[in-house]
Structure prediction request, 490 residues.
Amino acid sequence: MMPFENVLLWVAVLIFVSAVSSKLSDRFAIPALLLFLVIGMFVGSEGIGKIYFDNAQLAKSIGVVALIFIIFSGGLDTNWKDTKPVLWPGVILSTVGVLLTAIITGFFAVYIFKFSLLEGMLLGSIVSSTDAAAVFSILRSKQIALKQPLKPLLEFESGSNDPMAVFLTAGFLSILTAKTMGVAALIPRFFLDMSMGAVVGYLMAKVTVFSISRMKLYYEGLYPAVMISLVLLTYVMAVFLKGNGILSVYIAGLMLGQAEFPNKKMIAKFHDGLAWLMQITMFITLGLLVFPSHIVPLIGPGLLLTFLLMVVARPASVLLCLLPFKMNMRKKAMVAWVGLRGSVPIILATFPFMAGIAQAGIIFNIVFFIVIASVLIQGTSIPIVAKILKLDLPWSNKTRYPIEFEKTERIDAELSDVIIPYNSIAVGKTIRDLNVPEKCLIMLISRNDKFIIPAGPTIIEGGDVLLVLANSEDLSVFQQTVLYLKENKK
Prediction:
């Protein structure tokens, strides 16, 4: 057995190398998840590290814990204002779309790998969810954005479709292991699973806001610890009540992202870092679990299934799901192509090991190959496809200020960016000359990548980004003043 100090050394080195490798992700437009997987394989039993690891139970446990915090962080970061207009298309894609993808892919798997029908459906269910985080990391590295409403739709779909994939995987595993259970039994189970998960997530979000708002802890560092416990409690309660734990965690994160409570920004930053640590841990563990020599014989049929998933299963499910909604064909085509497989399929691929499924090993290796092939093929082509479909926009980096403001119940104000147009009537005027509401405060001015501390004589220039502290009413008055254009003057 490896000495404890050696274990710590490997852990430290792998986390450090993974974090640093994320710079390569942005530079070469390679999703970080692929780099983390490669690092795990590199130090595994068939790599230079020769670390032998075949504990699927431990890998599954690590994966589930990691997924809990990754999904919660995704919900917490979701902008509800952007998501609301695409709520129903996103819900249909993340439920019906996942089901259709699973069924179509499952039939292809039966034909290609000679699986039984249930084994094929199990494989289809495992690879049915998508990962938008990988997509937007690639677009960011290429300084490309997508036209609305593609970004919020894809983000919401990928964040909310994991519960459906988990449900289908668990359902088909139950049918395979309990021979007396039929597919029809999944229908009532689906409604119980999803409704209970949503209810628990909603109630726990309310409990979390109530608890954190009234705790008044002396040490700020304890708030993230409290949030960790409440996130885990949300998942466990949903599972105990026969609900979908992953959905409950996502709903809780989504609601907390829109709520106001003490130290929210600090907690959100902590969970963003925790989510990254979970991703690194999870992908390295899964990379260690795989044996590359077992994947080589699957390259041919694996590529065929990946191709059919990308050009038949995903597009067919997207086009059918978006049929009732007003969206042009170019945008539908983009949604269909942006169907990268990510972390969830590999985690779900460990479930058959625990259930004692005979084809568990080959299913895991197929899924592992599909994820890598999907990331390499679709991931690298997304910027090109966006340009061909004329759905690309220049990437806009949000100004990052050296100060932060935590909104509380006692302060009816928040920080907002106000960008000064080049033909604004405010250009050339001093702050003293502007009609700034009494309770509206210009905190900083961002100009040419530098920050200026404003004063009365400070002259406003076109393109300035003003960081303004004000309530919504005063901010609206201020914006009407500085955003008024010269050609509008009479």
